[in-house]
Amino acid sequence: MNPAWAGGVVTSRATCVLAPNPGLMTLEGTNTWVLTEPDAQGCVVIDPGPLDEQHLHHVLDLVAGRGARVALTLLTHGHADHAESAGRFGELTGSPVRAIGTGHDDLGDGDRLTVDGLDLAVVATPGHTGDSLSFLLAAGNALLTGDTILGRGTAMVAWPDGELAAYLSSLRRIEAMTGSLEVTQILPGHGPTVADAAGVVRYYLDHRAERLEQVRAAVALGAADVEAVLKTVYADVPHTLWPAARLSLQAQLHYLQSHP
């Protein structure tokens, strides 16, 4: 059995502070990432997590212990387990909080961010949610994926905000980045880091293709609604995970309407 993920120093530039919100959907908890160029004073925090004052101060203590300060806070997407504390964290640090959007300070695909020598590129990866972003840390060939790719298991497409065609496109985009060796490791929003980025992306794509074939088959055999398909296709999934499975299934059925 794999040991439980506890966060900590992952690379010379990336440290994970694990939020105290373990659960079926969050695994050991939300990964709050602290990114700093070695010996630099300015750092980037990605996904400050749920509104938990103790967690936020753990992050701040880590940063202060390095003689650094939070210069920029980024969000991979707007789900509460990643972003609920964003406003409070901005107050505590005085740092701008940036996410995808249409405002003057919001992030867009291809944006380049530099903080005290640390370089990040914004990679739009919608699908889990419509606002999902990943961040490329080129110096370590690492991609911070939020909930697009997890450190264990597979991600949910959170219908109706999430959408399967967009999600598959995002996975293929990441696959191309692994094929060029631009990305060799994944720093996810939940669970342990992934050393074999190419392997996990291929697994995600194969898993989605397999599930879609199962849904097609269930519909062809007469499953008339979401619940009937759910009981057939997700029979091997614990019932505690069926609410998430139901959302993913609705995304798959919507996808099959335009991709029969």
Report on the structure:
- The protein is α/β, with parallel strands linked by helices.
- It has a single domain, classed as Metallo-beta-lactamase, Chain A (4-Layer Sandwich), CATH 3.60.15.10.
- It is built from seven helices and eleven strands.
- A hairpin with an 8-residue loop joins strand 8 and strand 9.
- Helix 4 (164-179) runs antiparallel to helix 5, helix 5 (197-220) crosses helix 7 and helix 6 crosses helix 7.
- The longest helix has 24 residues, at 197-220.
- The model has no long low-confidence stretch (mean pLDDT 94).
CATH class assignment: Alpha Beta
- The number of helical elements comes to 7
Q: Structural class of the helix and strand makeup?
A: alpha/beta
What is the total number of structural domains?
1
Measured on Cα atoms, how large is the radius of gyration? 19 Å
Number of β-strand runs: 11
- CATH fold-type name: Metallo-beta-lactamase, Chain A
Report the end-to-end length measured between terminal Cα atoms.
39 Å
Written as H for each helix and E for each strand, in order along the chain, the element string is: EEEEHEHHEEEEEHEHHH
Question: What proportion strand?
Answer: 15-25%
- Catalogue the unreliable spans: none
Q: Helix fraction? A: 25-40%
Shape: elongated
Q: Strand order across the biggest sheet? A: 1-2-3-4-5-6
